[in-house]
Write a structure and sequence with these properties.
coiled coil; alpha+beta; PilO; membrane; 5-stranded antiparallel beta sheet; Type IV pilus assembly protein PilO
């Protein structure tokens, strides 16, 4: 009986040792590999997401590149709207020429001191006051061209219309002309 008992001890001891080796092997070798594989799967998912985002960005840039000529034309137009040179006398002559083209007499214009723009720090505002005389239709065309068509950036701040005769009126305008003060002619956009 003692031999039977010693066989049982060896049997249970051997089983306990096998269980201990399996548990130890699990925690020391297998579980870390599962954790490593899980981390790798997470990295693959992150990389796949980044790759998809980069492919979309590349497609957007390719589409933008196709419009490069249009963007350069817009940039040139914006640079003309915000000249760096002090060209106020030239601009006032352009206003007179624009008025003459539209049968509007532009006169009595004055430009007062510059001030920094509150919105864009690299831009100066120059208040200009002028009077324009002509028919109401021609004055309307002049104001439309002044605000929307001519290349220089101006903002009409106030306007007063006085009828002089039956078909003639005088318009008093106060507007701000803008000038870029930065050394490089970079267009600055702002959001409000």
């Amino acid at each position: 009986m003692s031999g039977l008992r010693s066989d049982r001890v060896w049997l249970f001891g051997g089983l306990a040792l096998i269980v201990l080796l399996v548990v130890t092997g699990w925690f020391l070798m297998i579980k870390p590999k599962y954790a490593e594989a899980s981390d790798m799967r997470g990295q693959v998912e992150d990389t796949t997401t980044q790759l998809a985002q980069l492919r979309k960005r590349l497609a957007d840039l390719k589409a933008d590149n196709e419009n490069l000529a249009e963007y350069k034309a817009d940039k040139a137009r914006f640079e003309n709207a915000l000249p760096t040179a002090d060209s106020i006398p030239e601009f006032l002559r352009q206003l007179q020429t624009l008025g003459s083209t539209l049968n509007v007499d532009v006169s009595a214009y004055t430009a007062s001191g510059r001030s920094k723009s509150d919105t864009v720090t690299t831009v100066e505002e120059l208040p200009i006051t002028l009077n324009a005389t002509g028919s109401v239709a021609d004055i309307s065309k002049f104001v439309n061209q002044l605000q929307n068509t001519q290349p220089r950036a101006v903002l009409i701040q106030s306007a007063g219309l006085t009828f002089v005769e039956k078909d003639s009126a005088e318009l008093s305008l106060t507007l701000a002309a803008f000038r870029n003060t930065s050394s490089t002619n970079t267009v600055v956009t702002t959001t409000q």
